[in-house]
Specification:
alpha/beta, four-stranded parallel beta sheet, 7 helices, 9% strand
Length: 211
């Protein structure tokens, strides 16, 4: 049966994404839940975006991540892979580096997310460069706001300079990494920050159980 997206979507181009997400989560979430979360994701990203050309695509990606987190929280079969969430202020530098590096080093052992308490308009310009140098894939990175379901789904929450802004959920493991902020820093400094984070990633992986 075809899925007819709600006319309440803030951009008619979201309809195709709503249909894809609803099909992917058929039997897990109602169509209305998918549409509501996609609409919320679009509006959250639009609130800080300086360039909106790709906002529809990014909103679908953001909504997909949030739906996967909800599935994990709900205990859906197959959704139980350990999850690590990196949180910094703008989700434009440190948490993007950490998420990409862990995803690269873990090779599927964990599910990785990142978010910002006050997301910036774009990822810092040197981030993609230093990740590529390290062999990590920087593609698809964009600042995302911190949402409740992503925090609740995380098994480990790693904060990086966002102070007390990250909500605390009982039963989660919380770590704070005092890493320098790459905002506006020259390439050489961003490389040092990347290497600092990479060492911490190695220590984190060494302490995770192998599945």
């Amino acid at each position: 049966m075809s899925v007819v997206p709600s006319p309440a979507l803030p951009d008619e181009r979201l309809a195709a994404g709503a249909a894809r997400l609803a099909t992917r989560h058929a039997g897990r979430f109602a169509v209305e839940t998918v549409q509501r979360l996609l609409t919320d994701s679009y509006r959250r990203l639009a609130a800080t975006a300086q360039v909106t050309a790709h906002l529809v695509v990014l909103a679908e990606r953001f909504a997909a991540e949030r739906l996967d987190a909800l599935a994990h929280v709900s205990g859906v079969p197959g959704a139980g892979v350990p999850r690590v969430l990196f949180v910094c202020s703008h989700n434009a530098g440190r948490s993007q580096l950490a998420a990409a590096l862990l995803r690269h080093r873990a090779a599927g052992r964990v599910t990785v997310s990142s978010a910002g308490t006050h997301p910036g308009p774009r990822v810092e310009p040197h981030i993609a460069h230093v990740l590529t140098e390290a062999g990590a894939d920087p593609a698809g990175a964009f600042p995302k706001p911190l949402t409740d379901e992503v925090v609740r789904a995380a098994d480990i929450v790693i904060t990086m300079g966002c102070g007390d802004a990250c909500p605390v959920v009982s039963g989660r493991r919380y770590l704070d990494w005092p890493v320098a902020d790459p905002e506006g820093a020259p390439l050489a400094v961003v490389r040092r920050i990347r290497d600092d984070i990479d060492h911490r990633i190695s220590d984190l992986l060494a302490g995770l159980p192998r599945t």
